[in-house]
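Q: I have 356 residues here and want to know how they pack in 3D. Can you give me a structure?
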Amino acid sequence: MKIQSRISVFRFLIFLVLTLVMSSQSFGTATYSIHPADADDNLITYNNPGQIRANYNLERDPVLSNEDYTHTNSIEVDQNAGTIKGYSGYHLDSDRAITVTGNLMSTIAGSGEPAFVAPLSGGFYYEATVNGPLGSEVTPSYATVYLDIEGSFNYEFGAPYLGLGGGVSITRLTENIWDSVSYYAGGEYVNTSDFATSPDAASVYSFEALQVYDAMGNELYNPVIPGVTYDAQLISMDPDDLRMRVTLTVEIQDGDQLMFTGGVGGGATHSFLEDFSQLEVGEMGEVAAASGYVDFSNTAVFGIELPEGFTLEGDDAPPLSIINYSQVPVPGAVWLFGSAIAAFMTVVRRKKTKIF
């Protein structure tokens, strides 16, 4: 099995969604996923319907891998506050060969070099019916889902690969579930450009996109998307003070069935000395000594904005604590970027209905 895909935290976020959403009985839940969770590179995913908090390794105890490097992953998700706090550290004290394993989940575009050996992520999933005031079906109204991320890249020595990103989505469910459509907006920070083969401790690169998916999770190219806007504000590119705000706005009316999701992912891993895309799982490859961490314990915040007079109802509706009321502006333009990142939301499902 060769490993070839674009470098992106979203490659792991899509895996998280497929694992958790398809198996859940309720969307109103806090979630997290950690990889690897132990020295055997096992993956932990957590999704307990109705769970308010999801915590893993708050003490930040490192895991010594079977290749003598350590990863330290920690995450805390609070559904009521809409917050996600995470930490991902990596340490290897000398250059050495490591075995290519299935956890090399993505690669740098154009280089084939792997990334995100140790990703972690946390997120929220909600499904709700829109309840609008009398006459709301006549005048256009809009709902906005947003994600604010604050974090940092930190280097102890060398230049480990570091990445931090997140995204939000709104899925419009229809009577014919096969006609349902998902809109996804996301952004990420990395320390490796698409044109380089090694992490750069002096630079931060960014990527952002809006994408649209059908009920099967297939990306729709050149879709008609009236009433949908997206923005990724890259507020700070300072490695010590990374800040981003991702927003997605869709037109709503009384009776709409909507699914809202939001998640953050990060990871710290090897500096690579050779092109791992040429190696099969089980073969050896050289990595460089490096130590550092991604820290977003300064918090990522997920929330939803509704116009005055609107509510979201249902057993799986989001808590009132993460809903804000404001005058959501009518979108002025629709931005669509045809990039190769995978969607955070690729599976659309009504309550008790699965779509594969």
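Q: Anything worth noting?
A: Residues 9-21 form the longest helix (13 residues). Confidence is low (pLDDT under 50) at residues 1-7, 17-26, 328-356.
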